[in-house]
Amino acid sequence: MAEIVVVFDFDKTIIDCDSDNWVVDGLSATDLFNQLLPTMPWNSLMDRMMRELHSQGKTVEGIAEVLKRAPIHPRVIPAIKSAHSLGCDLKIVSDANLFFIETILEHHGLRDYFSEINTNPSFIDKEGRLRIFPHHDFTTSSHGCNLCPPNMCKGVVIERIQASLSVEGEKTFIYLGDGSGDFCPSLKLGDRDHVMPRKNFPLWDLICKKRELIKAKIHEWSDGEELEHVLLHLIGAISTQENNSSNSAQLISVDCKLQTMSTSAHEALPQPLSVPH
């Protein structure tokens, strides 16, 4: 059983764009999207856009071709494969949708590396139109979190994953994300866990402002090359620490400004990069 669970956001973390915007822009529907954006929640808007595109003769196959061109940093693919080969359990928690995510992962040969994809459900109806639905049906009840959009609370998802894995014993979580929706799940991580916010993106900004709320160790990254380096270094260090737990190597907490972090004399875990306030 994997002792390290790596949870990835998808947009602007695995791929280097927002998949919704990428499809809308790629199919020349940006003006309509911007016109409708103030009138409904984002998730509902994406379902509406799929209806509009279908009425214009755009096919699911055409949408898939646009998705296959979504930019992904060349080091992200080997990073995912290496993390999997090192025995980590890889999962995705994303506010995109299943069709977009699976299309891109399958195109890059990555689908089978992930044990679980938590996202907004989607399917192709009998008319050949892509339908997109909320992960949480906010029309019948609220998930009760004021930090997250109405269709999905990633914190609730993380808590469910934590609970489902608790029967296997203690796990160390590594959470990678970029957006404001990744702040809530970051709050659910414990002091044995790690969060990897993308530098100068909303999650990083929120952590800088509210560092005292985060129990997990923080390791920033800027691009796919840094993501690979930081993630694999961290996995290796956690594995080494677990294998040599008898030496009682312990981390000293990052200070509230995220400017310095000390480790034991054995350098049990990599030092987080500086995150200014």
Question: What this model shows, in words?
Answer:
The protein has 277 residues and is α/β, with parallel strands linked by helices. It has a domain of 158 residues: 3-Layer(aba) Sandwich (Rossmann fold), CATH 3.40.50. It has ten helices and eight strands. Strands 3-2-1-6-7-8 form a six-stranded parallel sheet, with helices on both faces. A hairpin with a 5-residue loop joins strand 4 and strand 5. About 8% of the residues have low confidence.
Structure keywords:
two-stranded antiparallel sheet, HAD_sf, phosphatase activity, 10 helices, 8 strands, metal ion binding, Rossmann fold, 277 residues, six-stranded parallel β-sheet, 37% helix, Pase_PHOSPHO-typ, alpha/beta
Main β-sheet: number of strands, strand sense, barrel status? 6 strands, parallel
Would you state the CATH class of the domain at 4-16 and 73-119 and 150-247?
Alpha Beta
Provide the β-strand percentage band: 5-15%
Shape: globular
Q: What is the average per-residue confidence, as pLDDT, rounded to a whole number?
A: 88
Major sheet: order of its strands? 3-2-1-6-7-8
CATH homolog superfamily of the domain at 4-16 and 73-119 and 150-247: HAD superfamily/HAD-like
**Helix fraction by DSSP (H/I, runs of at least 4):** 25-40%
Uncertain segments: 248-268
